[in-house]
Design goal:
- It is a single chain.
- Strands 1, 2, 3, 4, 5, 6, 7, 8 and 9 form a nine-stranded mixed sheet that branches.
- A hairpin with a 2-residue loop joins strand 3 and strand 4.
- This protein has one helix and nine strands; from the N terminus they run ββββββββαβ.
- It is mainly beta and 113 residues long.
- The chain is globular.
- It has a single domain, classed as Pleckstrin-homology domain (PH domain)/Phosphotyrosine-binding domain (PTB) (PH-domain like, Roll).
Length: 113
């Protein structure tokens, strides 16, 4: 898996690349992108193709008890996605990127799951 690059510009904006996006048992992409910007959450492939997106207010997210610290679960348009974001150092299990994603989502009006 490639390293995750992330950028948190404002409290309500977030962008991360190199994100593994799973639709539960099925992997959608291993190097995707997650953005929280302009009141929307978008999940993109490594080529920039949209997997799913929704207004922040309709998205719920949280950290599951069964996953590592570097993972978050988001429900976008009724579909649950597991997002695994590694720190740029490549340290597995680092919670920093997923924690920043959840902070940005909650401060923009997203719901906790």
């Amino acid at each position: 898996m490639s390293e995750t690059e992330f950028r948190a510009t404002a409290v309500t904006e977030f962008s991360a690349t190199g994100v593994r996006i799973d639709r539960w048992a099925r992997s959608v992409t291993r190097a995707g992108q997650v953005t929280v910007k302009d009141g929307r959450v978008a999940l993109l492939t490594s080529y920039g193709r949209e997997i799913d997106s929704a207004p922040v207010g309709t998205v719920s997210a949280g950290r599951p008890w069964f996953a590592g610290a570097d993972a978050a679960v988001a429900r976008v348009n009724g579909t649950r996605y597991r997002l695994t974001m590694r720190h740029p150092d490549g340290k597995p299990g680092d919670a920093a990127p997923s924690h920043r994603f959840l902070e940005a989502l909650y401060s923009a009006g997203g719901r906790r799951s």
